[in-house]
Amino acid sequence: MKRGLRTAGVVGAAFLAGTVLGPVVLPPVVSAIAQESGSRAETYRLLNLFGDVFERVRAEYVEPVNDRDVIESAINGMLQGLDPHSSYMNARSFRDMQVQTRGEFGGLGIEVSQEGGYVKVISPIDDTPAAKAGVKPGDLITHLNGESVQGLSLQEAVERMRGERGSAIKLTIRRPGAETPIELSLVRDVIRPQVARFRMEGNDVAYVRLSSFNEQTDLALRNAISTMRKQAGNNLKGVILDLRNNPGGLLDQAVQVSDDFLEQGEIVSTRARRADDAQRWNAKPGDITDGLRVVVLVNGGSASASEIVAGALQDHRRAVVLGTKSFGKGSVQTVMPIPGNGAIRLTTARYYTPSGRSIQALGISPDIEVLATREEANAPLRDREADLRKALRNDNGTHESAPVPPVNLPAGVQDKVSRLPPEGAPAFDPTKPETDFQLQQAVTLLRAWSAAEPQRRAAR
Known about the structure:
alpha+beta; Pdz3 Domain; 2 domains; 9 helices; globular; disordered N terminus
């Protein structure tokens, strides 16, 4: 998740455990100075090491090298060695990212990470070349136009997947459960994802799917809810907010979307390396649904900003979360521009739900588990944040957090929801909502909930 493209100063500190020889006791200030001095000397020694290696590469490598390419690769290696989400962006990549957060960019339309040297698909974006070609969450992209992605940084691989509209690219994919690699030919396009797709389910349930969190998301959600409330009149029983396979995006948009359903209370907080850098966001009065019942759909592709929204609404018991466990990305990345040289994306904080829990490497557990297919019950668990190399640990044990409030549904309502599709259920077809088992169970829940509490009004 990117935090609002804020410019932030890079503050670095290195600490060396001081060793005192003999029975000497130093005053605290002197001790601190000695440690800082020793740390600085070690840092300079290591920088000299880097300079020596750089000169050896320039002088001795089998072919001439480009100094900028070598330095940028070294910077990217340093950042990617920290965690899966920190990275360096050169000037072109930084411009592309700024365009993407505005809601329009060129390429294939997939959110990716890196695993084992390959490009791993977190989620394809709706109605993009990748989604139309059948790219699925969890796919490993091993080759681009027949060339291995091994040895490429994530940013380099992403740049190779981007290109002019109408140009073609061939992906070689290794998919869990498939015996042989899958070859897909895609044509690049200008990606203008419709971040909010909405429709009425019957004449009484409003359905809105958010595909990402860019600068357009909150406005698109408000428009969707307003339009469907006018369509339904007084018949509306509830709202389904579909965050499945939504890979996240801007923190401020996650806060605004959460605030759209809340009247008060904390939405999310962040804790950084230094205690005085902690931040907290609270809801303002005003619920765009006027207290309608809400069901939030999540799955293993719901990450980052999606998890902030699901966690906030779950902790406040403003919504019932239905589906399967989310991805578990509970960290915040700050984009720090470097004048004339692109920017770095650096993990600067963990975020916490209103109850004080971190979902880092854990994810949001649904209130009601509903699987998309019967096969999912016996399939290996889909890879999540905890499976990524160098993923940050969860620190729930280092501070107090309140338990998630229990689901408070009327008696018998939850019994109307089935965990598994029936035998012989039709395969999921995105063009046929009736084949979306998780969605249909959410509709069933809302209608049963409304029937059990016909006079319910929200006191918010």
